Amino acid sequence: MGRSPLPLGAFAALPRVGGGPPHSPVRFALAVAASAASLLAVTAAAGPVGARETGRTEAPVASSSPVTDVAESVVRVRVPLPASAGPHPEACDWLSYLRFRHKDGPAASADADRILVAQPGILEGAGAFDSVARNTVSAAAERGKHIEFWALDRRSNCLEDGTGIQAGLRAGNAHLAIDYYYRQKEVDGRKFAGYQTNDQVKWLQSVGLEQTVRDQYDLMVRELPDPAARNRKMMCGGHSLGGVLTAFFAEWDFDGDHSTTGDAGYEQCSGYFALDTRISTALPGFGGDFPEDWIPLLKFGAGAVQAGLESGAIPRALSAPAVVNTETMNLLGIAGLAARLDPGGVSDLATYVPSSFNTDSTYRILFSKDYPTFLTGSPTVKDFRFSNAAALGGLLDDNSQPLAFMQASLGFWDGGKIVDKEFPAPNDLAGIGLGGLSRLLGTEKKAIPDEPRGPLYTWRNFDRVGAPDDPVYKAEDGTPFTSADKEVTDIAELARSLSEHPLDFTEHYFPTRMVTDIALAAAPGIADDAVHEDGVTANPTLNLEAEGGLGGDPQPGDVVAPGYQHIDVLTASAVQNGGRPEPVSANLAAFAAR
Length: 594
Known about the structure:
- By secondary structure, the chain is of the alpha/beta class.
- The protein contains 18 helices and 14 strands.
- The protein has a domain at 52-157 and 208-283 and 530-593: Alpha/Beta hydrolase fold, catalytic domain (Rossmann fold), CATH 3.40.50.
- Helices cover 29% and strands 12% of the residues.
């Protein structure tokens, strides 16, 4: 079948959970960057609140979103794992999603005009769709259509513990979250059990491609039992890896009888939508051929990979020693909480969180100005004063975060001297013949504060870039680091999305089996039921790409959002600079309303 969906570079070199540091700091930094980039590139009509005994619950979610005409709820449906998965927490026998609908729309999903079902990208949870879901539902209502947006949470997210962040949100105190996760303090009578080890998540070796697409099918069937209604009302899609999973879903035969098509994935959808991705089982931009050298173990075949997962030699959840792992994904939520509660307050994330190899290495990689700074470890992030908003911007903005698949266009630093960030790579990649690394590192120049023990660095939000009081910080080559037309996401909204939902923005335990299955899909026993290869073309598709993103080369008919990065297609503000409407949600709403 020649399948090849997502870049998994250096995956074989990823350490086991709890692994120690490598010997060379430079090799370590580059390995982390490569490993993280490889991760690039889840009852019938839904009514109000159900009883847990029925196998379905729904609870409203309070939100401070400025998009006030959209209601949100968290839905959980009991769909047990097969016995072959082995022992696992009871919570993992439930599938969950965030349901967004218009406040004036029907209470029952079966009565909605359309339902968009979205698979998250790698390392993403349902909360990542918050802004695009609200904006799309609201835009469709302006067209006279009441649609719903279901943001799926993959089954493995059952392992996450959001107690600390939710307690901090309720109390208005981010320290409560840090106390819970790092200082062994109880919250609501509960004590954090720690991050799950490789041995504790053994059951994840059974959660691969087949389980993931079947989870989506089972959830759609449970929530909308009428097959004709599913075929007419539901649209299937996703962000990043979600486009690949949607393609496999479209091809899958779910009843095991390949001669029938009523159960085929493509029959459950009336259309597809791709958010900075493609509805394709082949990797966009790589010619459809999977580079096996990126994962040497793949050369030994599916049997060797499965044996490695069963023995624990291969980590059952993707994890790098820093930047991309369970703990740092949770730290993003804590950073979002602090920026949500007190954006202008002085951040103590780097000091109140106890020091560890993971946190110290992560800060060192993300906040080193150049190689000498990285190698000597001086100055450290603790030598600078950041507002909470600036700390979050430094972690995820496209002028700071070095990994393209984690970048958003949030605004820019403010308050002091700013210089070029030349680590882990110089800004002039094209000038030194490394322009191809932009897929890994992004398209925008990187910048960093340069006054340790100096002023309080603050954050200039996306809609204040280019304002009369903007000092217009310039790079070493004399050009501005950014401009208003390159900034699209409100950092306050990102902070809210990271911290306000019962289903997280990030994904802490991404099953390794998922990516190895996709890479080895042509091998017997992996994707034997993905037989309807015309399924990806059976329905109309809307491709929504970020101009600086990872979706591949734009094709005629694609919508390309100017100034957007990979995460912006999910997080962009409903009103853009200059009063422009947000193009991703506007086009998605129009597509759904047809």
